[in-house]
């Protein structure tokens, strides 16, 4: 919840106009007071109005749309293949979380729901759709696939929810959303939620919403006061130094449980293996891991059976993991805003939390961007003996130096800033996160050292959650340059920068070409 919550006059769920069956479910969920976004959004949604909610996960935004939707769905019946409401979410985890909310709050009502996401068998969902569903929760790519196969009719949709719209933008989903909106009846209610409001999302809201009520519960780039932020500045950039720093920091703080954020899927795997090898209780979550494994890992983490969750941004985005004591950033995120989302996993609901960001020389520019955005001084932390230990580490040949080439004056090209962001909004890409993959979870793979020297695997070296793409994409800031470089350099950050023979101009002798 945000700190703005305290300023809002308290109201009750009953006063918001929700029906008795819902009130009972809310009561059983243990909630007595609506959060600010709920207090503002629910009455407006009940009246049929559009809402643009600027709110992050943790503010109670899901219930802000799920509760009034259930109330409205109590009247009327679903028809075959024609869902009455549609909720678009950027990732399967988020979609599944929304579905859980529907189950929790709708348990006293007879509502049918279908889920169109990667990793969930379509057959069963198709049967539900055939019988008629009140709520369809989907990731955009999946929905379009099934629509194009003629499995769904969208002409009966009365309410559309676009959840985590800014993340949809990052993942290149905006063209898909535009396409979906065009398939829906023009007379419908549209609710849009986003943690930030970049111009593209504003445009989307203007185009597809009708005089929406704008509800903002946290300023953009605001970090909660309950989070104590630290930075560990390293003299070296290679992965060995970073992993050592991460371990020492985890040992030095009182970590009940934590999320370690990495910028790439491969990094997620390598860091997880390293932590496990050194005796830490850790597991990975990113878009290339099988859905069943992701779900199981998250459940373990939520249940307190797993101490460290090593995650990519998209996989972790929007996940409701209550009561995390620590967030570790293996490096500052590619996009400054993601820093707020990442550290927002801790210090929730008034609890105290800590975040520690590891910054090597290559990360300095990224870090400067983050500090400028959050407008907060972040205390430097250096666990005892770490500086010397890092000085004395052997050179890590598979390290970040030179191999990664972070841009923005050096960063970002290898992440969603270039790959995912289609700020121009014309990209046809769909996020990798939606695809299923048979990659093995980190624990199931080889040891750390083997991973570090093996040649690039197909998916391992892709940026975390880099979207599928069949067209070059435009992107903001320094990303264009980066995209080109990514293509040229190929996917393997461990490969030598170039095998080309130099110094002979066009007259390279044949034996050298061989
Ligand atoms: P969300 O922002 O939708 O991800 O919700 C964040 C968390 O707040 C979830 O664990 C919800 O179950 C919880 N929550 C939602 N509404 C309330 C409420 N009115 N009071 C207390 N907790 C709530």
Topology:
Layout: H1 20-29, H2 36-46, E1 51-54, H3 61-73, E2 85-88, H4 92-105, E3 113-116, H5 122-131, E4 135-138, H6 140-148, E5 159-162, H7 165-170, H8 174-183, E6 189-194, H9 199-208, E7 213-216, E8 227-233, H10 239-252, E9 258-262, H11 265-277, E10 282-285, H12 291-302, E11 308-312, H13 313-316, E12 326-329, H14 336-343, E13 353-359, H15 364-374, E14 379-380, H16 386-391, H17 448-453, H18 479-489, H19 510-513
Parallel strand pairs: 1-6, 1-7, 2-4, 2-5, 3-4, 5-6, 8-13, 8-14, 9-11, 9-12, 10-11, 12-13
Bound molecules: adenosine monophosphate.
Question: Any overview of this molecule?
Answer:
The protein is α/β, with parallel strands linked by helices. The protein folds into three domains: 14-216, 3-Layer(aba) Sandwich (Rossmann fold); 227-404, P-loop containing nucleotide triphosphate hydrolases (Rossmann fold), CATH 3.40.50.300; 420-513. Helix content is 35%, strand content 12%. The chain has helices spanning 20-29, 36-46, 61-73, 92-105, 122-131, 140-148, 165-170, 174-183, 199-208, 239-252, 265-277, 291-302, 313-316, 336-343, 364-374, 386-391, 448-453, 479-489, 510-513; strands at residues 51-54, 85-88, 113-116, 135-138, 159-162, 189-194, 213-216, 227-233, 258-262, 282-285, 308-312, 326-329, 353-359, 379-380. Strand 10 (282-285), helix 12 (291-302) and strand 11 (308-312) form a beta-alpha-beta unit. Helix 3 packs across helix 4 and helix 14 packs across helix 15. The chain binds adenosine monophosphate. The site of adenosine monophosphate has 14 residues, from helix 3.
């Amino acid at each position: 919840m945000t700190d703005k919550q305290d300023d809002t006059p308290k109201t009750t769920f009953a006063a918001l106009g929700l029906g008795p069956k819902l009130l009972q479910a809310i009561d059983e969920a243990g909630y007595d007071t609506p959060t600010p976004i709920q207090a503002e959004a629910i009455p407006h949604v009940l009246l049929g109005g559009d809402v643009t909610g600027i709110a992050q996960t943790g503010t109670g935004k899901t219930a802000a749309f799920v509760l009034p939707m259930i109330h409205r769905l109590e009247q009327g019946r679903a028809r075959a293949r024609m869902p009455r409401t549609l909720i678009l979410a950027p990732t399967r985890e988020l979609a599944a979380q929304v579905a859980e909310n529907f189950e929790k709050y709708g348990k006293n009502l007879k509502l049918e729901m279908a889920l169109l996401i990667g990793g969930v068998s379509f057959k069963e969902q198709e049967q539900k759709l055939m019988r008629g569903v009140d709520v369809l929760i989907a990731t955009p790519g999946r929905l379009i696939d099934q629509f194009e196969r003629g499995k769904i009719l969208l002409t009966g949709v009365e309410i559309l929810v676009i959840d985590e719209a800014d993340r949809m933008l990052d993942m290149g989903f905006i063209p898909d959303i535009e396409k979906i909106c065009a398939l829906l009846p023009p007379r419908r209610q549209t609710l849009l939620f986003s943690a930030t409001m970049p111009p593209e999302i504003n445009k989307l809201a203007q185009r597809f919403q009708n005089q929406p009520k704008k509800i903002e519960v946290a300023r953009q780039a605001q970090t909660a006061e309950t989070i104590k932020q630290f930075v560990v500045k390293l003299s070296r950039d290679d992965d060995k130094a970073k992993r050592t720093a991460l371990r020492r920091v985890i040992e030095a703080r009182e970590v009940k449980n934590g999320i370690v954020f990495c910028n790439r899927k491969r990094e997620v795997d390598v860091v997880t293996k390293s932590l496990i090898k050194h005796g830490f209780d850790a597991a990975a979550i990113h878009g290339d891991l099988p859905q069943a494994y992701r779900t199981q890992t998250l459940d373990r983490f939520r249940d307190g059976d797993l101490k460290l969750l090593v995650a990519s941004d998209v996989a972790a985005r929007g996940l409701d993991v209550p009561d995390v004591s620590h967030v570790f950033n293996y490096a500052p995120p590619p996009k400054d805003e993601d820093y707020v989302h990442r550290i927002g996993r801790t210090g929730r609901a008034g609890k105290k939390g800590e975040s520690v960001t590891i910054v090597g020389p290559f990360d300095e520019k990224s870090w400067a961007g983050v500090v400028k955005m959050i407008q907060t001084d972040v205390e430097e932390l250096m666990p005892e003996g770490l500086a010397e230990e890092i000085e004395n580490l052997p050179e890590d040949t598979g390290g970040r130096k030179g191999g990664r080439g972070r841009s923005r004056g050096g960063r970002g090209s290898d992440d969603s800033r270039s790959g995912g962001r289609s700020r121009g909004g014309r990209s046809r890409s769909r996020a990798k996160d939606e695809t299923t993959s048979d990659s093995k979870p980190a624990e199931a793979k080889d040891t750390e050292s083997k991973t570090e020297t093996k040649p690039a695997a197909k998916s391992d070296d892709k940026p975390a959650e880099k979207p599928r793409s069949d067209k070059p994409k435009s992107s903001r800031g320094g990303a264009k340059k980066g995209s080109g470089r990514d293509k040229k350099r190929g996917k393997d950050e461990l490969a030598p920068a170039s095998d080309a023979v130099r110094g002979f101009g066009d007259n390279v002798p044949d034996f050298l070409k061989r």
